[in-house]
Amino acid sequence: MSTKPSCIRIPITDMPPSANAMRSHFYDGEKVRSVKSKPYAAWKKAAAWEIAAARPGRICGPYRLYIAVQRDWRSKRARDIDNIIKPVSDALVAAGVLSDDHLAEEVNAKWADDLGGPAVIASIYVAGLGVS
């Protein structure tokens, strides 16, 4: 008999690009087109492989996502914490940990001073269980 995990903790080695850098825009005749930026697509693919390789499990249905992000990760450049949420959510879906990010009932992101190596640690709880 298998049980569904009530919490999954996932370290992600590299810092995600800002949500501001997720798309590239260009003119195609009279229209402005938008595509995923190459740096974002490369980060998402690498992060999804890293996550999937760890075989963390899967949470189907509503969930709560808590993201801790290493402060001053390899740079003293200021970043906005809210611009890290979407790339992390997308990588979790791409890795198969979450079925769809529209099922998030709560999302929280915070800076951390010492995560012990990874750039990001995502903790995902089945909605109704775990941290409140």
Summarize the structure.
The protein contains two helices and six strands. With 132 residues, it is α+β, with helices and mostly antiparallel strands.
What would you note in describing this structure?
The protein is of the alpha+beta class and 132 residues long. The chain contains two helices and six strands. It has helices at 38-53, 85-94, and strands at 7-12, 23-28, 31-36, 63-70, 104-112, 120-126. It has a four-stranded mixed β-sheet with strand order 1-6-4-5, with helices on one face. β2 (23-28) and β3 form a beta hairpin. The mean pLDDT is 88.
Describe the structure using short key phrases.
Endonuclease_RusA-like; 132 residues; alpha+beta; RusA family crossover junction endodeoxyribonuclease; globular; single chain; 2 helices; RusA-like_sf
